[in-house]
Design goal:
Engulfment and cell motility protein 1 isoform X3; 28 helices; alpha+beta
Length: about 625
């Protein structure tokens, strides 16, 4: 047994190596491991009583080796039996399971669901959301991360008609409040992988709105028209309706038209026509009804306030709700696939079961307030929408932890505050347009471009750690690439873990002479972006992808960790090839350095001696009696 345990331990660590994995798989090693897992519990039943820890370790090493081997993508996931899936699911469903076994089992289930449609159906039968929830209530963040990853995978692969049903189960099991209590508000920092999984869950939840967003209103559908009647009834509460005689029918029509105009619809006669544009389709009407029912006082106040203003100054509630819904869908990217690298989740969306509708209710009140502050007329509609978008975006970047906090952030971002911010930004980017200054700019520009080029090449010499992207997002697959100090050779190689600091050249096994590089391609032109697969359709990954083409058909493929590194590397490689540096970062750096250099040169420095060394820091005072404490 001891020897077997040692062998499995070695296997678990060696399986990371792709060459070893290839050989082991060729010898039918994977099926040996699956048999061990399937029959494991029976065979070691007796042993388990005598040597419980040993059994747990064996299973843990077996599953670790399995995860590592499958991660190389050599073997298809479709080859596994139902017995194996049942066994893995049983490890997850048991309450008192060893942490490492539970973690590996969750990782295996996530990969099965993401990589095979058949396995998705089998796993979905074996495991229920109810069995996963208890793992979220523990204190181990890694287990929580893997659990949310499995829920996300089941959500992502669920057929469209089952997604809403699954969302209802999640709501019933109170997944949102469990995540809020045990993950977001737990007394510990959220690591990147957890932030990514929460972001994916947030995107998938908002994507449930896509169906309503892309549904046009059918003007003939009575149920849908009743919603508009309901909006009118709540606002004007017309109890004293005349009886249904032909004379009063005309009256009623004209009264409805007048009320719809007050409600701010573009089409007063038949407001249903306003909801035929997609996006936002029926979603806008859903939001308006939610606002009217759940925030009735605010709704009535907005409608009556505007109907009492003169026509040109009224803020049209109907039109602005439709445009606002469309804008919020764009901000939250409703309908787009989650990005592979993003971890931008908003805690406030986990504080309410109807967070999108509540988000809309806060923003529509903001829009009305901003409209008044701007003293806007109907011609200013688009300007107001731009200001509101800026207010919402700025408030979101502060990552408010609740909807109330978001509301108070917006209170501080009034129209005058936005004007101040814009003014100060404009001052910073002040551009001198007179001819002598433009000539001076032209003269200085080559020096500054050379400076930027040197900085880019120095960053390439320091090198960067890149993540390997495979079918499962894993933290621990990295490779490193750096330029030699003489700018002649690129050194690169795989790493066990994310490095702290620079990686020396001699520890990177592979080389690529710069002279052999034929071209650098980005985005859709990269060979690794042309392959089929769920990852590859992703817009954000596309924006971070670049490849070096060399020799006859060879390439080195990269996915940058972020936009900044992407710009550094594409600039640096273009500089090595003698091409222009075209990235946004170069443009920004050039603007900043140019304006700084010009301001320095325009300073009135006649007869002023500028010292070479900075002035010395004065000594500390003998006492601090002069300090006034404001508190």
């Amino acid at each position: 047994m001891d020897a077997k345990l040692e062998a499995l331990k070695d296997l678990a660590s060696l399986s990371r190596d792709v060459t070893f994995a290839q050989e082991f798989i060729n010898l039918d090693g994977i099926s040996l491991l699956t048999q061990m897992v399937e029959s494991g519990t029976e065979r070691y039943q007796k042993l388990q009583k005598i040597m419980k820890p040993c059994f747990g370790d064996m299973l843990s090493f077996t599953l670790t080796a399995f995860v590592e081997l499958m991660d190389h993508g050599i073997v298809s996931w479709d080859t596994f039996s139902v017995a194996f899936i049942k066994k893995i699911a049983s490890f997850v469903n048991k309450s008192a399971m060893d942490v490492s076994i539970l973690q590996r089992s969750l990782a295996i289930l996530e990969s099965m669901v993401l990589n095979s449609h058949d396995l998705y159906q089998k796993v979905a039968q074996e495991i229920t959301i109810g069995q996963l929830i208890p793992h979220l209530q523990g204190s181990d963040q890694e287990i929580q991360t893997y659990t949310i990853a499995v829920i996300n995978a089941l959500f992502l692969k669920a057929p469209d008609e089952r997604r809403q049903e699954m969302a209802n189960i999640l709501a019933q099991k109170q997944l949102r409040s469990i995540i809020l209590t045990h993950v977001i508000r737990a007394q510990r920092a959220i690591n990147n992988e957890m932030a990514h999984q929460l972001y994916v869950l947030q995107v998938l939840t908002f994507n449930l709105l896509e169906d309503r967003m892309m549904t046009k209103m059918d003007p003939q559908d009575q149920a849908q028209r009743d919603i508009i009647f309901e909006l009118r009834r709540i606002a004007f509460d017309a109890e004293s309706e005349p009886n249904n005689s032909s004379g009063s029918m005309e009256k009623r029509k004209s009264m409805y038209t007048r009320d719809y105009k007050k409600l701010g619809f573009i089409n007063h006669v038949n407001p249903a026509m306003d909801f035929t544009q997609t996006p936002p389709g029926m979603l806008a009407l859903d939001n308006m009804l939610y606002f009217a029912k759940h925030h009735q006082d605010a709704y009535i106040r907005i409608v009556l306030e505007n109907s009492s203003r003169e026509d040109k100054h009224e803020c049209p509630f109907g039109r602005s709700s439709i445009e606002l819904t469309k804008m919020l869908c764009e901000i939250l990217k409703v309908g787009e696939l989650p990005s592979e690298t993003c971890n931008d989740f908003h805690p406030m969306f986990f504080t309410h079961d109807r967070s999108f509708e509540e988000f809309f209710c806060i923003c529509i009140q903001l829009l009305n307030k901003t409209w008044k502050e701007m003293r806007a007329t109907s011609e200013d509609f688009n300007k107001v929408m731009q200001v509101v978008k800026e207010q919402v975006m700025r408030a979101l970047t502060t990552k408010p932890s609740s909807l109330d906090q978001f509301k108070s952030k917006l209170q501080n971002l009034s129209y005058t505050e936005i004007l101040k911010i814009r003014q100060s930004e404009r001052m910073n980017q002040e551009d001198f347009q007179s001819r002598p200054i433009l000539e001076l700019k032209e003269k200085i520009q080559p020096e500054i471009l050379e400076l930027i080029k040197q900085q880019r090449l120095n960053r390439l010499v320091e090198g960067t750690c890149f993540r390997k992207l495979n079918c499962r997002r894993r933290q621990d697959k990295f490779w490193y690439c750096r330029l030699s100090p003489n700018h002649k050779v690129l050194h690169y190689g795989d790493l066990e873990e994310s490095p702290q600091g620079e990686v020396p050249h001699d520890s990177l096994q592979d080389k690529l002479p710069v002279a052999d590089i034929k071209a650098v391609v980005t985005g859709k032109d990269c060979p690794h972006m042309k392959e089929k697969g769920a990852l590859k359709q992703n817009k954000e990954v596309l924006e971070l992808a670049f490849s070096i083409l060399y020799d006859s058909n060879c390439q080195l493929n990269f996915i940058a960790p972020d936009k900044h590194e992407y710009c550094i590397w594409t600039d640096g490689l273009n500089a090595l090839l003698g091409k222009d540096m075209m990235s946004d970062l170069t443009r920004n750096d050039l603007d900043t350095l140019l304006s700084m250099e010009i301001k320095l040169r325009l300073l009135d420095l006649e007869n002023i001696q500028i010292p070479d060394a900075p002035p010395p820091i004065p000594k500390e005072p003998s006492n601090y009696d002069f300090v006034y404490d404001c508190n």
